[in-house]
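Page 47, continued from p. 46.
Same chain as before, 126 aa.
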Amino acid sequence: MKDQNPNYKGKYPNMIIYQGLNDAVVNKKNALFLVNQWTGVNNIDTIADVIEPAFMNIEDIKRTQYTDSLGQTPVILYEVKNLGHKLLIKPGDKENEGGKKGMFGVDKGFHSTYQTAKEFGILKSH
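Result:
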């Protein structure tokens, strides 16, 4: 990526990767390729700094973060068991809930859209 614009010296965007471990469409190795790519452009190593094997006490969700020397986390990887090629949802009407079970969503008690917005810092604080 840096070869495409070698004169660029700015900050690269943060990356959050969600990967179903039994996804029949996207090979789970692709998530690791993305981790390698985005840790590289952010000048950090590929050694996980924090691993949460049951994120939010949800056994099927493993959260791994890669932190830079300033303590920022530019790369986060969520690996999800029994997800297939679907979105993580948590049906309901609360702020951290949303989505519908069916062809495109699996209820894991975790709303990935909400979590992504939270991780990117775009939610208003209450």
